Amino acid sequence: MTPSDRLYLKRRLVNGFNLVVSGLCAAFGLFWLIWILWTTFKTGLAAMKPGLFTQMTPPPGSDGGLANALFGSLVMSLAAIAIGTPIGIAAGTFLAEYARKSALGEAIRFVNDILLSAPSIVLGLFVYTLVVAQVGHFSGWAGALALALIVLPVVVRTTDEMLQLVPSQMREAALSLGVPQWKVTVQVLYRSALPGITTGVLLALARISGETAPLLFTALNNQYWSADLSQPMASVPVVIFQYAMSPYDSWHALAWAGAFVVTLFVLLLSILSRAILLRNKAHHD
Amino acid sequence: MAAQSPTLMTTTLAADERNARDARADGLFRKLVAAAAFFVLIALTGAALSMLWGGRDAFTTFGFKFLYSTDWDAVNLKFGALVPIYGTLVTALIAMLIAVPVSFGIALFLTEVAPGWLRGPVSAAIELLAGIPSIIYGMWGLFVFVPIMGEYVTPWLNDHLGQWPLLGPLFRGPPLGIGMLTAGIVLAIMVIPFISSVMREVFLTVPTRLKESAYALGSTTWEVVWDIVLPYTRSAVIGGIFLGLGRALGETMAVTFVLGNAHRLSASLLEPGNSIAATIANEFTEADSDLYRSSLIALGFLLFVVTFVVLAAAKLMLRRLSRQEGTK
Predict the structure, then answer these.
(1) Which residues of B touch A93 (CB under 8 A)?
(2) Residue A26's CB: how many other CB atoms inside 10 A?
(3) B227 touches A: beta carbon within 8 Å
(4) What residues in A contact B136, CB-CB < 8 Å?
(5) A15 contacts B222? CB cut-off 8 A
(6) What would the pLDDT profile of B114-142 be if each residue is shown by its tens digit?
(7) Is this prediction's pTM over 0.95?
(8) How far apart, in whole angstroms, are the C-alpha atoms of residue B66 and residue B138?
């Protein structure tokens, strides 16, 4: 074997080895995904029961459901979407239509991206000092506000991106007909960007429906049924946290059932948003 | 203009009025959306300032000692942030040591190795990992992963790596299963999808002619990736790693479940510890004095500052590649 043969052999071996390792890395990632989902679905399904949706969260040792927690999560998430979406769409409109290349726009985009990945527990602390500490008690509104701060940057980002994708001929055509700019934005651009913005809102909803940290000291928890947003409110993630950390088996089972419901909901939302994007793409091509 | 007929007069007047109304509405709309955009700026600065304000008691009482004291005593009201800071940094470091090479491998697999029909499904599945709520990771970690760590991994580490001369103390500890190492591994699983999707995206931006030139010179796939793709995308790859680091530093629920909530500084990675986010999540509602609560908010402020710096660095690094792209 000549030295150059040996060199070629070595290079081919290194190449083959590293490519195999890269495949193993992908398998490694999939392995955890399957393991986590399998555990959640198997244990969660075993703990599912009809009473889950009709009974209240039980005291230690007795039987119950998650009705108040599911309701609380639903109400606070919808309130957060209702607060965060309009502000987010408006801010995204400013970035895409009025500050596309300006330094101010870049600065706001930068801040928005940081808000997007900021630790959610920090947002909870922010709302605590801003609302809870001033009002004097925990409330569903504070929880909704903390969640709205997570919704906001997601909607800003998608609105900005989707509006930038709208062809400028569309703006010019509408403006040349004498339509004022705000009408162009609301009636032409929003209509064209709607599927993308909807996807962003759905993704934001998926993100907040599993959020625990910002709710711990804003909405706190509530053992009873409560539809009053100015009072402490139960939510599925917080109940999961409380029950999973407890020593009782019946609470563990409820926590798994809650985890199953949340995971299923989040996965369905992300599949739905993907489907909307794909359909929209096919529509345009 | 005297010759103008009355009807034309009224139409022009009406048109003027309409134009003025439209201009007013346009101005109003612009102000409205600008206000919303400023709200984003205010939200972030407000978050920082409110935590600085909430933590003022702790900062004025303990001064700089807050940063390096290991005290955490709710009875005698002595608080120091060193244990949680140490725990946060160590768990994030373990997570990055595992997640960075694996993410690089996944990105390499998805851009160069996998056949076309496999790329879409595999990358979608990896991205599903990012969508799973962190509390699910926490529960899975506590009920499934911790027992395995305690029963098999910890004894094995004690018997093998624990005997090493220099690194030994890191891997000696009781077979509890909870601790820094477990938290680091769970964090790694959580940040892999973030880092690998950034890497995959930037690898796809490398011009084909660069890669083809290298292949034409007889390079292997690995050599093309290591010597062409990686140097070309270096700043964005580091940006993606920082993005993952920011996530790992601030992650709360998954860590809270498996870290053990123990305020003790220990050399071993197998002992329970604490992180900033886990301390806040565990103790905030139980804080019974103003100074206690203020210390926890001060911890939150520290976490915010650290993640802000890391995420800002990530953004700047990622932006460098897109500018480079733009000049071509």
Answers:
(1) 33, 36
(2) 24
(3) no
(4) 36, 40, 210, 259, 262-263
(5) yes
(6) 998 999 889 888 888 888 999 999 999 99
(7) no
(8) 29
